[in-house]
Write a structure and sequence with these properties.
The protein is mainly α. It has helices at 13-22, 26-39, 48-55, 64-76, 94-98, 106-122, 138-150, 164-183, 185-204, 211-234, 238-255, 258-274, 278-292, 298-314, 318-334, 350-363, 367-380, 385-401, 405-418, 425-437, 445-458.
Length: 463
């Protein structure tokens, strides 16, 4: 299909042709663009007239061309880029483009990761406008699955070679993990990125490292890159999170750690589903399940089934969601306890599954079950304020779904209090989701009071 030119006298013929092929109305496209933008922190109010202007050749500002491409691709069921739709190529830092690729040559991955980290620390504004691109995840998961098929080693939990730099890096990972859990990703991310890009990546480029140590250090680099991705997600830098996690997956293949690889895929599934791409979230979870089945880690498998359930719930396919939750329960029952599992999944337990299942039942509108599970998660996570705040938001929504407005707002107010000192966009987004559901009751005094309290933390409402 020929690509039109935005701004040309005949308008943007490529966009018009794609919309016609998709059977998508101008109003439907505008609504979906607004939804995708809101999920990434961009409040827009496009309407059918906006789509008309785009088809006439107007190029919207900022991330909007990418959101339009994501929306049209979703309607068509295949990846579409902004240039496919007739929008001019947008200037982008080369590293932001390269970081979406799963490179065969791992030395290129190390170079990309070091440059990405350096740019992240010293010139963050150059990466701040980088959007999350769901269609970019197709090739990395394909490459990972090809590696999995070609891997000749027997299924095993990766052994860790101790001594020397390995012990030092392991200690740093433990410290970063503790800080992340206590204070949120926004506070610890610069330290993780700095250590990864200036210390560990150069270490892996040195000659003379014993093969066993090098393999373990690749795994540790993958873990740190994945942590940087989660921390980026916690600061609402979703495109950056995606790029760190893709690079983490490639490093994980080099280290040969299937358990960690499955967990990185679980993280990508979580992000994709949370940002309005549940079909991609399910696909990523399924790739992770294929990985975890031959890794010897029931806990890792449990998390991946839970992620698949999250995607199915958002897709409104309750039978598949229920089957995935049942599979998660079965995997949990098979685990012989954290001591018999990889270090990467020892944080997973029945409380984790309760919290994820609560989200599934919330999205399916099964309020009483969501209430029970979310309440249990709140009670179990008194030492993890981020998880407690998210589960409190789910509990508040479950109350709201049962028309228990006072309990809903009171619980959400408690969740707001839990965010003091914790920089976590995941927690903020959960509360924004609850606040959006309050719209029909916005004139109630208790709701107006909550809005005033929430505004400094959640920002102005889009309503």
């Amino acid at each position: 299909m020929a690509v039109g030119t935005a701004g040309a006298g005949g308008g943007n013929t490529a966009l018009a042709a794609h919309l016609k092929e998709a059977g998508c109305s101008n109003a439907a496209l505008a609504r979906r663009v607004n939804e995708l933008g809101a999920l990434q922190g961009e409040v827009t109010r496009y309407d059918k007239a906006s789509t008309t202007r785009w088809a006439q050749g107007v190029t919207p500002k900022g991330k909007t061309p990418q959101f339009i491409a994501e929306a049209v691709g979703g309607f068509l069921g295949r990846p579409v880029s902004p240039t496919d739709l007739g929008f001019p190529p947008q200037a982008q830092r080369p590293v932001a483009a390269r970081a979406l690729s799963y490179r065969e040559d791992v030395s290129e991955t190390l170079h990309t990761l070091a440059e990405l980290g350096s740019t992240d620390i010293s010139r963050r504004r150059l990466l701040g406008a980088t959007p999350f691109i769901a269609s970019a995840l197709v090739d990395p998961q394909r490459q990972w699955l090809l590696w999995l098929l070609e891997e000749e080693q027997a299924p095993h939990l990766t052994s860790v070679a101790g001594g020397g730099p390995v012990e030092q890096v392991e200690a740093m990972i433990n410290m970063f993990d503790l800080m992340d859990n206590r204070f949120g990703g926004g506070n610890v991310r610069p330290s993780i990125v700095g250590y990864l890009s200036t210390q560990l990546a150069p270490m892996l480029q040195q000659r003379g490292l014993p093969a066993s140590q090098r393999r373990t250090l690749y795994v540790y680099a993958a873990k740190l890159a994945a942590m940087a991705g989660w921390c980026s997600y916690d600061t609402a830098e979703y495109g950056l999170a995606e790029r760190y996690m893709i690079q983490a997956l490639r490093l994980c293949a080099e280290g040969g750690d299937r358990v960690l690889g499955g967990q990185i895929l679980a993280g990508l599934s979580h992000v994709a589903t949370s940002l309005g791409n549940p079909a991609e979230g399910v696909a990523l979870a399924r790739a992770g399940i294929a990985t975890a089945k031959c890794s010897g880690s029931p806990l890792g498998l449990m998390r991946l089934h839970a992620m698949a359930a999250r995607g199915h719930a958002m897709l409104d396919t309750p039978r598949q969601a229920a089957a995935s939750l049942a599979a998660a329960d079965a995997a949990l029952e098979q685990s012989r306890g954290p001591a018999e599992e990889s270090v990467w999944v020892r944080f997973l337990d029945h409380h984790y599954l309760e919290a994820e299942a609560a989200l599934v039942h919330r999205d399916l509108g099964e309020a009483t079950t969501a209430e029970r599970l979310a309440a249990a998660s709140v009670a179990a996570n008194t030492d993890r304020r981020r998880r407690q705040a998210i589960s409190s938001s789910v509990l508040a929504t479950a109350f709201l779904q049962q028309n228990r407005l006072d309990e809903a707002v009171g619980t959400a107010s408690t969740a707001l209090d839990l965010l003091g000192g914790v920089h976590s966009e995941r927690s903020v987004q959960a509360l924004r989701d609850f606040r959006a559901r309050l719209a029909p009751s916005r004139n109630e005094p208790i709701v107006r009071d909550f809005e005033r309290k929430a505004r400094p933390i959640l920002g102005a409402s889009a309503a």
